[in-house]
Design brief:
The longest helix has 18 residues. β1, α1 and β2 form a beta-alpha-beta unit. Helices cover about 20% and strands about 15% of the residues.
């Protein structure tokens, strides 16, 4: 494998939801396999310029990336639901229940 002797620091920029749901679970096996890799993970929900922030890579929710970036899917699509008191919706009825 090409990364057999991987070593060094990797800076990753990610929103909190992506870090918790996708990034952390995927990184644990990699770090166990390559103990000389160090990670610096910046968890921030603002839409920042990953390069200007000094990161090597970033995680985005959705599929919007700057034109000079390349992207690949890191997970299956995440599902989200809206949860609120029924009176907030007034006469509107939600038809799907989870």
């Amino acid at each position: 494998m090409i990364f057999r002797h991987a070593i060094g620091l990797i800076r990753i920029y990610a929103p909190a939801m992506a870090a918790e749901a996708v990034l952390y679970p995927k990184l644990k096996p990699i770090l166990n396999q390559y103990p000389k890799i160090r990670l610096e993970i910046v968890v921030d929900d603002r839409w920042a310029d990953i390069v200007k922030e000094g990161s090597d890579m970033g995680v985005r929710l959705g599929n919007k990336v700057a034109k000079e970036m390349i992207a690949g899917a890191t997970s299956a699509p995440l599902k989200m639901v809206l949860v609120a008191f029924a009176r907030l919706f007034g006469a509107t009825r939600l038809t799907e229940k989870y």
